[in-house]
Write a sequence for this structure.
């Protein structure tokens, strides 16, 4: 494998981590969605590159799913939903941008330190890919934890899942990758349709998940 | 390789799949509930026949060994009794108008999809397939938890969905790491995901990668097991969904997720060089036990009460497997089986009680032994069994866990016993309110059968008094396997 091929793979995977960071400080839903579309675009480029250097044609399907479904269909659908639900003006309460960014940096440092130590004899492409992928997964979790809004939790989950796809494509010759990315797309479609069908907004007058706590059945 | 043996494995999967397809197209509640029962009975019969049939050689996707056969039989048995209970329960819900026929259209189909997912996860010889199967089972239960479409049910389904998805995502990351550890040794492609091949060459796998993988798998599947602090979905999902679903969630789905954890623990144990999975499991188990024991005191909803009790018992089981050794493993397996039977039976009684009293609020359920002796005493027996009183099966498994822990780590055993006693106190407190005292008025009748819970309690009692020798030997053998 040439160094250039390795460098481009790193560039793309690193780009994904960078876009994950950009998500952390978006305080408008539309901006968050646009950032996510960019995230999915970078992912599909990264997967396509892996497909090219590994000579694994089936990964092009995964790249295609990322491009069409995650970069276009889902953001457009969520965009419409936000308008319908009338929450597009909502500014989200993020747990202080600076604290979130610091936490994000610590997570990335943690995952790189962990993966380099653990997978020291794996081949460098797989190892560094894994480190980036774990960073994206953890940053996705961080987005989910720091947001209280149902739509942005979905976005956080999807970025987490992008990290998983990155990890799966980096693992050379891993079977079922395409099937798993399809299964995840179904899962996400379920979530999006669920929020829309069950009209969380209408029933709770808010897509703020914090409001759901009122219905616990524990309070008298 | 015997064709008959393979057929039984296939039948455990094909029957629910075919039934789901048929049920999805069948209108009418009566017919589909009967078909649901029939399909569950057939699946159970197929699972039983696995005992007699010679085992086929493990394939790339499916296999049967001593560990999973126990779980399959238990799974299909509780699946069948729950389908019997469900028929009467849902019939009552239709009569009272809490559910409409239109909404029930896919209920039975989903039930069979869930059984398919769980059975597939249990017979899977492929870590990728196992993951897909558990995701399928999760998705189908999410739909059923939200069945009532009330605000509470939707919140529960949403929470379950999001937390379950995160757990599933973490488990997938762990699965990918296992593949990465296996790929240089076993070779690229599908064979690096086949459990039996991984086990054969476990000693050569990279121990560091495997250890990290186990942490992710433990947290991921642990979310589905309902371990604290990842348990938040569990009480809501149990309380707001229909009661038959609470019974299968507690009795089966938690077990299936735990089975996945055990499989990977086996892989770790076969490697020798990895960090021991014990401390992590003991820690999470103990945390769940203590946390749930204290949470039991503040419950006002009867189904939530027993949901927290499920967290407690899952904690106990994970703790037992974390301690390891033949005795603790034996106790863990026994506890798993006993908890499955007891907890699903408790949910059957609770379902009937809440239908008769028309409420799930503990404060409105009083003097059950007076108004409905059969149900009241059923609840008393169930709570006595689940709280670990002799002569029930759970007493025996808890006793074994406590004694084996005292011999090896007295300090931990003290904490463990404290947790047990705390939970015991909470359950007794609530039970005395509900079973005895001045009777509260009942709202109506129920048409669901009492038979399922009577059979379950009978089995648990029998197991506590006398466990037949073949079963003991079987459990001992599996406990040896678990290391």
């Amino acid at each position: 494998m040439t160094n250039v091929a390795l460098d481009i793979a790193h560039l793309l995977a690193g780009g994904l981590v960078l876009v994950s960071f950009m998500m952390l400080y978006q305080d408008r839903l539309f901006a968050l969605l646009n950032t996510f579309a960019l995230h999915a675009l970078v992912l599909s480029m990264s997967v396509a590159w892996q497909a090219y250097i590994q000579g694994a044609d089936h990964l092009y399907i995964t790249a295609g799913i990322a491009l069409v479904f995650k970069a276009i269909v889902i953001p457009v659908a969520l965009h419409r939903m936000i308008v319908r639900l009338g929450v597009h003006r909502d500014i989200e309460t993020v747990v202080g941008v600076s604290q979130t960014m610091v936490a994000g940096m610590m997570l990335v440092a943690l995952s790189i330190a962990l993966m380099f130590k653990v997978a020291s004899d794996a081949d460098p492409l797989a190892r560094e890919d894994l480190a980036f992928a774990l960073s994206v997964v953890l940053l996705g979790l961080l987005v989910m934890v720091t947001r209280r809004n149902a739509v942005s939790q979905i976005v956080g989950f999807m970025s987490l899942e992008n990290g998983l796809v990155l990890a799966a494509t980096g693992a050379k010759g891993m079977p079922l990758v395409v099937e798993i990315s399809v299964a995840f797309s179904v899962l996400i479609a379920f979530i999006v349709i669920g929020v829309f069908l069950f009209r969380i907004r209408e029933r709770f007058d808010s897509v703020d998940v914090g409001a759901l706590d009122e219905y616990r059945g524990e309070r008298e | 390789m015997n064709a008959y043996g393979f057929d039984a494995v296939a039948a455990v999967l094909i029957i629910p799949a075919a039934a789901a397809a048929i049920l999805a197209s069948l209108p009418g509640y009566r017919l589909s509930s009967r078909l649901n029962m029939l399909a569950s009975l057939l699946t159970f019969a197929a699972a039983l026949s696995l005992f007699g049939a010679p085992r086929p050689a493990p394939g790339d996707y499916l296999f049967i060994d001593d560990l999973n056969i126990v779980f399959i039989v238990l799974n299909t048995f509780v699946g069948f009794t729950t389908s019997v209970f469900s028929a009467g329960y849902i019939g009552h819900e239709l009569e009272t108008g809490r559910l409409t026929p239109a909404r029930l259209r896919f209920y039975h189909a989903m039930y069979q999809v869930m059984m398919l997912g769980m059975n597939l996860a249990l017979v899977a010889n492929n870590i990728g397939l196992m993951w897909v199967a558990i995701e399928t089972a999760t998705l189908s239960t999410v739909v059923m938890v939200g069945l009532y479409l009330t605000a509470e049910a939707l919140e529960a389904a949403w929470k379950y969905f999001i937390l379950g998805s995160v757990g599933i995502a973490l488990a997938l990351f762990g699965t990918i790491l296992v593949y990465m550890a296996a790929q240089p040794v076993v070779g690229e492609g599908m064979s690096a995901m086949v459990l039996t091949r991984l086990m054969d060459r476990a000693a050569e796998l990279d121990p560091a990668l495997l250890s990290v993988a186990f942490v992710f798998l433990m947290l991921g599947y642990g979310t589905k097991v309902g371990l604290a602090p990842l348990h938040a979905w569990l009480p809501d999902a149990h309380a707001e969904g229909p009661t038959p679903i609470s019974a299968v969630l507690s009795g089966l789905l938690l077990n299936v997720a735990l089975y996945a954890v055990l499989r990977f623990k086996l892989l770790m144990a076969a490697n020798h060089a990895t960090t021991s999975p014990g401390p992590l499991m003991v820690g999470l188990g103990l945390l769940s036990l203590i946390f749930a024991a204290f949470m039991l005191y503040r419950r006002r909803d009867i189904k939530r009460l027993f949901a927290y009790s499920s967290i407690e018992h899952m904690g106990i089981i994970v703790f037992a497997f974390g301690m390891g050794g033949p005795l603790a493993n034996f106790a863990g397996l026994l506890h798993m089986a006993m908890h499955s039977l007891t907890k699903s039976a408790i949910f059957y009684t609770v379902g009937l009680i809440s239908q008769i009293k028309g409420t799930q609020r503990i404060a409105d359920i009083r003097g059950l032994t007076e108004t409905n002796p059969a149900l009241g005493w059923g609840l008393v027996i169930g709570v006595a069994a689940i709280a670990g009183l002799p002569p029930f099966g759970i007493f025996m498994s808890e006793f074994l866990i406590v004694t084996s822990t005292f011999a090896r780590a007295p300090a931990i055993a003290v904490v463990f016993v404290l947790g047990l006693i705390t939970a015991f106190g909470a359950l007794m407190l609530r039970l005395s309110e509900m079973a005895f005292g001045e009777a509260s008025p009942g709202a109506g009748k129920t048409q669901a059968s009492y038979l399922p819970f009577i059979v379950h309690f009978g089995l648990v009692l029998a197991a506590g008094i006398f466990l037949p020798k073949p079963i003991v030997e079987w459990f001992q053998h599996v406990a040896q396997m678990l290391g």
